[in-house]
What we know:
Elements: H1 10-17, E1 43-47, H2 52-57, H3 64-75, E2 83-87, E3 94-97, E4 100-103, H4 108-125, E5 129-133, H5 135-142, H6 148-151, E6 155-158, E7 161-166, H7 169-173, H8 181-199
Amino acid sequence: MADVPPAEDLGTLRRAAAACRGCALWQRATQTVFGAGPDHGRLTLVGEQPGDQEDRAGLPFVGPAGRLLDRALLEAGIDRDDVYVTNAVKHFKWEERGKRRLHKRPSAAEVAACRPWLEAEVALVGPQVVVAMGATATASLLGPQARVTRDRGRPLEWMTRVVVVTIHPSAILRVREGGDREGEFRHFVDDLATAGRLGMGAGPTG
């Protein structure tokens, strides 16, 4: 598990995370991909792990899933600039397929190793509502007993905060031709809108 030093601000925490060796994922990743967004805010979105483009850029949600997330936030009436976005795991885990680096799901041990960074991030940002996007983020925040399909869209409690569980936007991109991609997108927008409503009128909890 990562040894997270005390930090009074996100900048200090980000610099410390860049040197994390809490699991072996750093060895193949380009860099640590820390969260991005306002230092304090009512809403934090937690994804699973960086993808190929995020690993190269050093920023979360800058690839195709990030563009879909931007569209969904807009339709949910949420300003992306007001939202802190991060991932449960800070390094890109991948396997080589030809010339491509494909996402590989982090193990439970890797998720657990990175959890102290996520907890420290959330504590500093102080959101009223946290959105867990995908199974890895959901397990990191709520434990292995939580299920996206069962718990989706329902306000749950985590560390005195409200958690709203939903799918990861990349799951929408993976809907095959003939599937209901638009329906999945609309459901995702509804989940984000629910989180936005829950966070309205409530300041950061610190």
